[in-house]
Each structure stands twice: as structure tokens, then as C-alpha cells.
Amino acid sequence: MVLKALYLTFSSPKSFENFFRRKLNPIRENEIEYCVMEKFKSNRILFTAEHANSKKFKVKKFGPKAFVTIGDTNTGILAKIGAFHMLSAYIFPLFNRKDADAARNPKELGKGLVLFTRITNSETPQKVAYVPIHSDSSYLKILERYHSIIEKLNPRAIISVHGLHADREFDMLFGFGPNYEMIGGKKEAFKFKKFYIQKLSQIFEKLNLNFDMRIGVSTWRWMGSKNYVLTRHIAEYNKSGKKKRIGLQVEMNYKGRVCKETKGLPSKEYQIAIQVLGEVVWEWLSLRR
Length: 289
Prior knowledge:
alpha/beta; about 20% strand; 14 strands; Aminopeptidase; 8-stranded mixed sheet; single chain
């Protein structure tokens, strides 16, 4: 573990696990992990990672070694690092989205939802397949509990961490929902991106890191429009006429989420990037009080 300018970076899974074992005492119940830290009452920024559980599933009809990966590797780790930096809160499921998808409406459990995903080691010409997800209706009460925890926390902002495939052009892609409604419109969305890039590049320069990250705003796909956590706790909440919340889905590229130099952890650049994102969201909230 290295501490530079108040930004934590971890060089291995062991250093990450040892540090957080000492520093945090998360609650684990009903296959849900969450932790509320001392500054959450003041900043009320909640980090989530709905697809934190990542597993490989064999698909033998495409060959004996063929499999699909369901879940976004290390997104839970990034959510935890971001939340600890802000001393705010995080929550993510310990179950896989194949059984129940915390980013989908609980009412859709067992209703035939599928994920269009890539096949690894396919021995047939077919390289992609539709895989059933959100399929086990016994998870209904667990999903309802997940959302009740979020409701009780009453966050002002939700940062929902997800994953992009390695061949995508962006390192980070922000999604603010249809018509950018979860941040107040298109102008605000691109202003937020500019603000974030300026701050992140300045911090990288101070830390003698090369800033070559590509950061964008989703204009159609990966907007978070299907993310039920953001729909329910941001978009629908804001329509109630209460004080507005902000929400964003941040997609982070596999090439930085899983890194050889950190023995399978996110790269130190990605670890710092998620911490700075928490800071920028807090500054954004503070300017709009």
C-alpha cells in the first residue's frame, strides 16, 4: 500500500485485503455487503457496484473449454476504494447477476432476461451468445432489502461502478441516464466531464503520472438508463419534487480494472481516478446547494 498526496493505491490483492481488514468493519447480510463511514452523514455519497460478483460459466455447446464471464471484475474493489477515500458509504451484492441482477427491477426476476455476451474459447464460428440472467425468483426479498438499505441511507449522490470490455476506446465512460436527467441535462453532463478531467490531470501531474486516460460521456449506450438503482433512487426520487439528487454510472475499462502490475487489482491510475471522482461529485454537490 502506498500513500501519495492522500490517495491510496494498492500493489496487490493481499495489501488491499490486509488494509481494509484493519480499517473497515463492513456489514454482510443476505449476500449484501455495505459499509457506512464517519463522513457519510455530511457528504452522503454512495458508491455502488451492482455487478461486483464476477464468475465464469461453462457453455459446453460451444466447446469443452468455452465459457462466458458474467460480472464486472474489481468494480466492488473500486467502489470500496472510492468510498473509503471519501469516508462515505458503499454497497454491492455478493451474488452474481446470473441469479439476480441488482441493476434490474426486482419485479423482472425470472421473467426471461438475457445478457448478450462474448464466448471465450469457442470452438464454433459463434463468438457471442444470449445468456439467461436475473433468473432466480428466490432472490426477491434480498433485492428488496438491497433497495431498502439504499432508501434508508438517503444518499445525495450515487456513483454506480460498472465495467467496459478491453477493446472499448474509453478508459472511463460516464452515463447520466436518458437526456442526462440524473445530472440536470446535457450541458451539465459535459461540464461535469470537463471539470473531472481538469482535476484528474492536475493530480496526475502532481504525482508524476502520465495522463493518457480517455474519458467520455455516453450519448446512447451505457447511459445507465437500464440501471434500476439509478432509476429508482435518483430519477424517480427527483420527480417527487424533493431536493434533487445526482447519479452517474461510471464504466471503467477492463484493461485498467485488471492489471498485471498490481497482480490483478485495478491499476494505480484507476485507483486514483475513482477517488478523484468522489471528490469531484462532492465539489459538484457543494456548488449546487
